[in-house]
Amino acid sequence: MLALGARSTTQTQILEGLTFNLTDIQEKEIHEGFHNLIHMLSHPENGVHLNMGNAIFLKEKLKPLQKFVDDAKALYQLEAFTTDFNNPREAEKQINDYIERKTHGKITNLVKDLDPQAVMLLASFVFFKGNWEQPFEPEHTKVREFFVDAETTVKVPMMHQTGRFDFYFDEELSCTVVRLHYNGSATAFLVLPAKGKMKQLEQTLVKETIQEWSDHLFQSLMSLYFPKFSISGSYEITNTLSKMGIVDVFTDQADLSGITGAPELKVSKVVHKAALDVDETVTEELPNRNKRACYWMST
């Protein structure tokens, strides 16, 4: 959505950083593609619940361009709000209450220590809930050991079921892959690296790897143990985006004039917060990002 309001080199860096080849595809096609993807994923026939949206919180005297609001609402389901950043505590409450409501209480206290000089905050959220096609029986969940690393184990509620699952062992990456299905068309990949191979797996995990696994999966009878867990974390990903070539948007060279018409806006911080709950029947996931001071936040 940020690219929708970016111009010149700033926009090019954002789109190319997302691996789009701008000689082969036009910006309009990219936004329409995301719009169609959101519509497809949100369709109830998929058998999963997916709630996606974006919000812009603006300083009271800063007005967004009507074209940006109209386009972002049509393409990315944008909602726009006026916010008094001079009162950081009230601004934080307004933004956090909105995100908590939209993520069904899963993401709380996303924003803290807001800069009173902030003029805008962009927030994106995704709420996913999927029911396992083959649920785990709660009575089979027992406390067992989970190996955090070679020396550390913890006691966790371990789910269990025996059946036929999509399976593959990747000899090159030394990892075992199991694919579980949700009701509908969504799937989840469980990947277990061999001892000492976690870093190697993390460094080579790209979409082509997932596709290769999908092409080689076969049905196998197995006894599957899978921990029941809830995790969450917040990450400042400005440096990560800079390494992807998205640089100007964080500097005085930023051109986000397509949002408000004001040329001096720049992104000061990008924060990503995610929460994941997995149990016997469902997976609930919330990936959430945050921008002069303009924050760009996502859940």
From TrEMBL:
This is Alpha-1-antiproteinase 2. Coiled coil: none annotated. GO terms for cellular component: extracellular space. Residues 1-291 form the Serpin domain. SUPFAM superfamilies: Serpins. Belongs to the serpin family. Keywords: Glycoprotein, Protease inhibitor, Serine protease inhibitor, Signal. GO terms for molecular function: serine-type endopeptidase inhibitor activity. SMART domains: SERPIN (SM00093). Pfam families: Serpin.
